[in-house]
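<goal> How does this chain fold?
<sample>
Here is the protein in question

***
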Amino acid sequence: TLPAVAAGLTYTIVNTGAAGNNLVDVAVTDGVISGKFTLAATVVVVSVATTIRNTKATSIKGDSVTLVSDGSGWFITASTGIWAQQAP
């Protein structure tokens, strides 16, 4: 779970487990996550997610997501691998 939003905070989360072994959830309790990532070869626009997930079945060691806060929410600025979202 990411901390409260604050302008300039940047986090990169990397799945370090073996392929198909780890489920990685990134959740927020303050603000929402928005931006773009790839879901099964399709670019998905995330507008109001509270959690994004690097699913266990599709995970590959090194999958990652970078999130930056502007003080009101979290924005995806980069990602590798396949991620899914959960709406609030």
User: Anything to note?
Assistant: The longest strand covers residues 42-49. The two ends are 14 Å apart (CA to CA). Strands lie at 10-14, 24-27, 33-39, 42-49, 51-54, 64-69, 74-80, 84-86.
